[in-house]
Amino acid sequence: MAHFRSLLLLALFTFSGVAVEATGPGDNGFVGLRDNYYRNSCKDAEKLIKKAVQAELAKNLKHAAGVLRMHFHDCFVEGCDGSVLLDGPGTEKTSHLAGFEVIDAAKAAVEAVCPGVVSCADILAYAARDSTVELNGTGWAVQGGRKDCTVSLASRAEAELPPPMFEVSQLIDSFARRGLSARQMVVLSGAQTVGVGFCDKFVSRLYDFNSTFFTDPSIDPAYATELKNICPQHSFNTSIEVFMDVITPTSAGVFEANYYKTLQEHKGLLTSDQSLFDDSRTRAVVTSLLNNRRFQKEFGKAMRAMGAVGVKTVGQIRTKCSAVNE
Ligand code: HEM
């Protein structure tokens, strides 16, 4: 019966001329998403969002990484539904995220032209793509059609987001639960070629690692010394920033394949980064993504798949991204 239903849906979408590109399990069958979604309802939406993102990032380019990360958090916690943008006590926003002003500015720009049409979850998906382009990425076509939710809970974020000490098996499981493959997990991790992390996320790799090793032996020794100088012993400091990608250490980052080179050189910042190269199941994928053209292409496809995770067909189009409509 279920098989029959999916065949019927496939037929419907083939006949209606809607492009459904199957790029991975997450992109697979969420039939409500499409390219050029606002073509008729708000034809300049993508242009307006891009312009607003560019203007905001001209003030602070570091927010580009923040917006990209925010889209990941949004999609991994109860699906891509704008939950990460809601204000209030105990919402997901309380976790360490940056760049909300970029989304607010983009929302204001589209609301001024077509009020109540473009969802915040979609704006975040477009803005994440536009942010990587501002950091020299090649970009990808973003699908629209997500509805906004009315609930956001920090406790859900804590339960759902993979923590930085996860190893490959746990990462594969976490992504598989969202219909994303192990390869897509490695590709999407490449987003961490831009931006920064704070000492508390990796200090346990530097000091008292385990009963055999004081420092995680998978870290290049010179890099470990460098990190120890920045993050003093036993300090779970949440204000000292370290570049996620030590090969292109500019304050905002450059969106390219160097992340995978850092892993090959044992300079991955987090356990979840370095284990991708150290584990035989994912090492070949890391090596293949050293090619920047391949990385950019696969990243776009994987982001389309991630952007389709848990999308809601019913919900609101919020007027303000930080608050539920009255
Ligand atoms: C694979 C599992 C992942 C884990 C365990 C993880 C964990 C982390 C952690 C701990 C940080 C540092 C943040 C801080 O210290 O406050 C970070 C930063 C970042 N992550 Fe991830 N992440 C993962 C996957 C992803 C994905 C899939 C994306 C996007 C597609 C992403 C994008 C980013 C970006 C852009 C930053 C830098 C943020 C900034 O500078 O504001 N991450 N991640």
What radius of gyration results from the CA coordinates? 20 Å
What is the H/E string? HHHHHHHHEHHEHHHH
CATH superfamily of the largest domain: Peroxidase, domain 2
Ions and ligands: protoporphyrin IX containing FE
CATH topology category name of the largest domain? Peroxidase, domain 2
Can you tag this structure with a few keywords?
mainly alpha, metal ion binding, 326 residues, single chain, 2% strand, 46% helix, 14 helices, Peroxidase, domain 2, Peroxidase, 2 domains, metal-binding, disordered N terminus, two-stranded antiparallel sheet, Peroxidase, domain 1, binds protoporphyrin IX containing FE
Descriptive report:
The chain has helices at 2-15, 45-59, 63-76, 100-113, 120-134, 154-160, 168-176, 182-189, 203-206, 221-230, 258-264, 271-278, 280-288, 292-306; strands spanning 196-198, 241-243. Residues 1-28 have low confidence and may be disordered. The longest helix has 15 residues, at 45-59. It folds into 2 domains: 33-159, Orthogonal Bundle (Peroxidase, domain 1), CATH 1.10.520.10; 162-304, Peroxidase, domain 2. A two-stranded antiparallel ribbon has the order 1-2. With 326 residues, it is an all-alpha fold. 43% of the residues are buried. Helix 2 (45-59) runs antiparallel to helix 4, helix 4 crosses helix 5 and helix 11 (258-264) packs across helix 12 (271-278). Protoporphyrin IX containing FE is lined by residues 65-66, 68-69, 72, 96, 98, 162-164, 166, 171, 188-189, 191-192, 194-198, 201, 244, 270, 272.
Secondary structure layout plus pairing:
Elements: H1 2-15, H2 45-59, H3 63-76, H4 100-113, H5 120-134, H6 154-160, H7 168-176, H8 182-189, E1 196-198, H9 203-206, H10 221-230, E2 241-243, H11 258-264, H12 271-278, H13 280-288, H14 292-306
Antiparallel strand pairs: 1-2
The chain binds protoporphyrin IX containing FE.
Residues 65-66, 68-69, 72, 96, 98, 162-164, 166, 171, 188-189, 191-192, 194-198, 201, 244, 270, 272 line the site of protoporphyrin IX containing FE.
